[in-house]
Amino acid sequence: MAEDLSIALLDLLRKTDPDHRVDFFRQAVERLAQAIIDAELTQVIGAEPYQRTSDRTNLRNGSRSRQLDTPAGTLNLEIPKLRRGSFMPSLLEPRRRADRALVNVVTQAYVQGVSTRKVDDLVRALGVDGMDKSMVSRFAQSLDDDVAAFRSRPLTDAFPYVWLDATFPKVREGGRVVSMALMIAIGVNDKGQRSVLGLALSASESGAGWREFLKALVDRGLHGVKLVISDDHQGLKGAVREVLIGTSWQRCTVHFTRNVVAQATKQVQPAVSAIVRQIFSQPTRKEAQEHLARAAEELDKRVPKAAQMLRDAEADILCHMDFPSVHWRQIRSTNGLEEIASKLVDQR
User: Fold this and answer.
1) DSSP characters for 223-280?
2) For residue 202, which of 169, 238, 251 has the smallest C-alpha distance?
3) Which of 15-29, 137-151, 303-317 shows the highest mean pLDDT?
């Protein structure tokens, strides 16, 4: 994955409230960094802790604390001390920028699983050559275990609002680089705290993929969903109806406005956009409905297809107005989620 995938995924997880984020990325990066430091020391002195071997050249003698600032947060590391001489991990060498590489590996573990080759490449980039392959495998397995625990954590709160979206990063699959659907769910609980509920890769953004994704969230405890916000993807809408029974659906007003505007000629598009956006600025649902009717009548003369789209989508684009008005701006579109999701696409 590209570096901006790591940064974007970190941004996404930072939107999770502290009680549910449990500093996952910071802890995972910290664990990986500490494991690499300890493994490098083993290589330097020729022995594991308490191991008797003829290759041993020195003895461990406690440790000292050291902090390392990374994109995932500040890591609290323990730097081993030696009975004779000193030891400085390659990770902490001056001017070495390994923190982003650490975050990249953890990001890959979250999205698609991390390979021993990736961990081995990271270790070699730090200047630690010849590390035992079984040790590299243990690093990768440890990361996979951490990621699995986070992704399968119980969802104990009720989440009245859930946003769904998908983007299409390039991933390596069976030796080939292919485009896959990365499905994303973010929820807000009844305390107003936002959480990343889950991310999952699928071969395509199909109804079956969305059903599997939503069922996995429900199996983890997702409940209390009153409104789902997404674009007008038929497979996604069908999955919501099937899995989240009794839930209302809000069509993203940003996507909808773009679709309506696209029906007009370039000269007319700015005016059409202004007409449609005024619908969503009305203070009550009744006024929004009245404004929509007037807008459709006006567009009948200039862009009849756009007028019909307005009439057909009325219930879906005004659904958010059945909820508290203080929430309308946030729950009428997937804009916040989409901005971050778009950064998850590999830009290489």
Assistant:
1) B---EEEE---HHHHHHHHHHSTT-EEEE-HHHHHHHHHTTS-TTTHHHHHHHHHHHT
2) 169
3) 303-317
Q: Domain segments of the chain: what residues?
A: 23-151, 155-249+333-348, 253-331
Tell whether the model's pLDDT for residue 236 goes beyond 90: yes
* Residue matched to tokens 């009550």: 284
Rounded to whole angstroms, how far apart are CA atoms 23 and 59? 34
pLDDT band for 95, please (50, 70, 90 cuts): low
Q: Tens digits of per-residue pLDDT, 264-311?
A: 999 999 999 999 999 999 999 999 999 999 999 999 988 999 999 999
Return all residues near 164 (Cβ < 8 A) that are at least 6 apart: 183, 184, 185, 210, 228, 229, 230, 236, 240, 334
Which pLDDT score is estimated for 96?
60
The DSSP call for residue 196 is E
Q: Which fold has domain 155-249+333-348?
A: Nucleotidyltransferase; domain 5 (3.30.420)
Residue 2 per-residue DSSP state: -
